[in-house]
Amino acid sequence: MITPEEALARVFALVQPLSTEDVPLEYAAGRVLRHAVTAGRDQPPFAASAMDGYGVTADAQPGDRLRVTGQAAAGHAFPGGISTGEAVRIFTGAPVPAGVARVVLQEDIARDGDLITLPESLGKSTHIRAQAVDFKTGDTITAPRRLSPVALALLAAMNCPNVTVSRRPDVAIIATGDELVMPGETPRADQIIASNAFAIKALAEAEGAQARILPIAADTETSLRSVFELAAGADMIVTIGGASVGDHDLVGPVVDALGTKRSFYKIAMRPGKPLMAGKLKGAVLLGLPGNPVSSIVCAHLFMRPALRAMQGLGQWPMPSATAALGCDLPANGPRTHYIRAALSPGPTITPMDNQDSSLLTMLASADALLVHPAGGGPRKAGEQMRYIPL
Ligand SMILES: Nc1nc2c(c(=O)[nH]1)N[C@H]1C(S)=C(S)[C@@H](COP(=O)(O)OP(=O)(O)OC[C@H]3O[C@@H](n4cnc5c(N)ncnc54)[C@H](O)[C@@H]3O)O[C@H]1N2
Ligand code: MOO
């Protein structure tokens, strides 16, 4: 069995970056910017007042009485300038008129008609923001990057109305198994509710994909084939369940018959051993194990990085960090163990009580996957160990 690291490398080898499209900035949140954007202007485009008050000359002294000769507001520049003995009423965001060297806050000023008296101390700050202090013409926002809310505001400030982003990956999700019915339906006594696809869809969408849950495929070749037809055009097809060696585990034979070029089947990890990956008619195929925890952990570790790579973000594993073990850990077996665990301040990481791969409750209350390497020896409480945040 290959290692999880080798499996991820093989998944990346199946992925091609998708084409790009231009979208209005308003609809670009969370999309992956593929072309760098260059600012065509300075911000601010002029020296601007940072406060409401009075603009005064460089030679103005504490206690001076000055004549107010005009007004500058945001969006309403004062066309003239001031000289010694003069001041200009000025508001936050206004262009600083010629001759103004500092802004004195209005609450520090006594005003009497057109005359103002400066306070006893003018303070250190000029309360003037220099032209281009935020960004200047020619500054760039590099690509690729996922567009955060703040990045959108920055692009807007640069006067960029549209951006070139990656097309959203189309992900088709196929749950398989005669025991499954959708939430809201009435299960027979020998049936359960299909849960995994909801987490897989949400994880795909968190990566910027458009994901669709296809009808549940029954454990027959005919049913599986007909649901696969509905996946036509998808960039990624994710199956759930039917991946193991049981008589009713038909995903493998069916995807082979449909022409899948398998990359691997089975990896040395726990949970998630029966993971499969390949290429089916241009789509990346991920065959996830059916156990709820196994499917979601595999989606987190393999589907998410693959979707990032598809959108041009490069080939990176999910980020990890380290924390001190909250209790002793027994030696691990031959598969890397992704232990469902809770983080607490420190940071400290403590495995959940029960690691059975069917337990959604355990995964739902976990913050992280504590990584116990294959063949790793026993570990003592307090030792630093790597974890992958969930
Ligand atoms: N003889 C062996 N048996 C099993 C092995 C093995 O190596 N030898 N591996 C075990 C491991 S590890 C896993 S993981 C599972 C994976 O099996 P499948 O991928 O074939 O999954 P199923 O049998 O279809 O389902 C397993 C389990 O999960 C439930 N399930 C399936 N799909 C969903 C869904 N969409 N939502 C909620 N629950 C789902 C299903 O009812 C089963 O209980 O195989 C072990 N067996
Ligand atoms: O690998 Mo299975 O995912 O241990 O339950």
What can you see in these coordinates?
This protein is of the alpha/beta class and 390 residues long. It folds into 4 domains: 4-17 and 167-310, 3-Layer(aba) Sandwich (Molybdenum Cofactor Biosythetic Enzyme, Chain A), CATH 3.40.980.10; 20-43 and 136-166, Molybdopterin biosynthesis moea protein, domain 2, CATH 3.90.105.10; 50-129, Molybdopterin biosynthesis moea protein, domain 3 (Molybdopterin biosynthesis moeA protein, domain 3, Beta Complex); 321-389, Beta-clip (Beta Barrel). It is 18% helix and 29% strand. It has helices at 4-14, 149-157, 196-206, 221-230, 251-257, 292-310, 360-364, and strands at 20-24, 32-33, 37-38, 48-49, 53-56, 65-72, 86-90, 102-105, 110-112, 115-117, 128-129, 140-141, 145-146, 162-166, 170-175, 180-181, 192-193, 210-213, 236-240, 261-265, 269-270, 276-280, 283-288, 321-325, 336-344, 348-351, 368-372, 384-389. The strands form 8 sheets. A 6-stranded mixed β-sheet has the order 8-5-7-6-10-9, with no helix packed on it. Helix 1 packs across helix 6 (292-310) and helix 3 packs parallel to helix 6. The longest helix has 19 residues, at 292-310. The model has no long low-confidence stretch (mean pLDDT 97). The structure holds ligand LQZAQKY5 and molybdate ion. The site of molybdate ion has 8 residues, from loops.
